[in-house]
């Protein structure tokens, strides 16, 4: 929220001011410049989300700056709706990045469902805190004793058909043993990029002789395919087969989904 209130997000408007973007058009509606006010207040995408969660927007005065309007809007909400608004803003920014960098457009239904699940998860944590006291939650849990954990992720740029895989390996105490990145060219889509990142992670674990390992990533599709015995006919089928073949070299290996805070 600090970055939102201080207009420090790299919107296309801000990027164009620094000559780092060819235009400032909003990727959601394709009709206006993507200022912070447009993306989080005026764009039809965020307006529809606010309607879904029944959050009435504050009136807009010509003399109000973005910060003045946001402060008025925020103060007018209940505590629960303030938390919800912060989540909505975060998810809008996440969806914008998915659209720009991976070409994946989230529908209002999909986005609102994600927010509802995210809210439910936080409610469960708050309820648990009331009964058991505060719980320390880390983004990356340390693996079990004698089991190493290897996290993978990827970044995909559709217009360049390029991707970069990132891998971090940790020991049973959560200490980093290795971290590396590798670029890929001629990548068809984000799923191929994630699959290659996972294959890279398994290869790193094999090279390091980590025979008891947890492979963890944030791609539900990849994790489901690796844990499934069904025949895969998708575009990443051959990569999935390669990963499963490599997995035979381990004493124990599991493929798990990592949920980033999100």
UniProtKB/TrEMBL annotation:
Residues 1-48 form the Reverse transcriptase zinc-binding domain. CDD domains: RNase_H_like. SUPFAM superfamilies: Ribonuclease H-like (SSF53098). It comes from the Eukaryota. Residues 151-255 form the RNase H type-1 domain. InterPro entries: RNase_H-like_dom_plant (IPR044730), RNase_H-like_EbsB-rel (IPR052929), RNaseH-like_sf (IPR012337), RNaseH_domain (IPR002156), RNaseH_sf (IPR036397), RVT-Znf (IPR026960). Pfam families: RVT_3 (PF13456), zf-RVT (PF13966). This is RNase H type-1 domain-containing protein.
